[in-house]
Amino acid sequence: MIGRPAPDFTLPAVHRDGEISLADYRGKSHLLLAVFIGLYCPFCRRNIAQLGAATEKLRGVGVETLGVVATELENARLYFKYRPARIAIAADPDLVTHRAFGLPRRNVTDELMQDYASLPVNPTGEAPEPIPMAKLGPLLDRSPGRLPAQRRGPARHRAPVAAAQGTVPHRPRRHRALGKHRAAHRRRRRGRQIPERRRAPRRRAHARLTMAATPGAAIQP
User: Fold this and answer.
1) How far apart are CA 33 and CA 58, in angstroms?
2) Which of 53, 136, 195, 219 has the highest CB neighbour number within 10 Å of its CB?
3) Residues 104-159: tens digit of each pLDDT
4) Is the pTM for the entire model greater than 0.85?
5) Contact (Cβ atoms closer than 8 angstroms) between residue 31 and residue 22
6) Which are the contacts of 25, defined by CB distance < 8 A and separation ≥ 6?
C-alpha cells in the first residue's frame, strides 16, 4: 500500500459525540494512524498513553494523531472516562480498519483469553523475566509511560476500568453507609469499643448540668 492513497473509513468517536473519518484530516495535515487490537491488550493501553505524551510534539511539526481501538464503543468510553487519552480515539469493533489496511487480527475467544492469562511474555524487557500478560498488564499501567491523569485510580474506579478492558464483569456499586454510622459499624465488627475513660467524663458532666437545672437540687462533689 506504500505510495497509494490510504483507504477511507468512518467510525464512531470515543472522545466526543459523533463520528470521525480519515476525510477529516485529508488535505489538512499529516496523520499518524495507530490501530490497536483492543483495550484488553496491555501494550495497546501503554502505547495509547505514550502517544498522548508525544501528541504536542507531533502537532508542532504538523502531524495529528488518531488511535483506533477494536473495542465496543460503550466499553471504550467507559475506559477512557477514568483514564482520559490525549489523542483522538475511534472505536472499531467490526475491524473495518483492520480489513481496509490488511492487518491481521484474531477473534477474541475463550481460548485466546486463556492464553492471554497464562502465556509468559516480556517483549519490552521491563520485567525481570517473562510473566503472564494478565500480571504484566498492571505493571505496564503503573509504569512511567502512563500519564499522571491515567494512573491507577481509587478502588471504586478499578471495576469499571477492568470491565472496559474486558477482564472482569462490571458489578454496580452497592449503597454504603456514610459518616459516623459506617465508622461505628466497623468498630463493632472489629471488636473494638470506645475506652470507658473517654465516656465517663461526658456522663458526669451531663449529670452536673441536669442537677443544676433542677430547682433545689444540690450538686454532689
Assistant:
1) 12
2) 136
3) 877 778 887 887 778 888 877 777 888 887 787 777 777 654 433 334 445 555 55
4) no
5) yes
6) 31, 64, 66
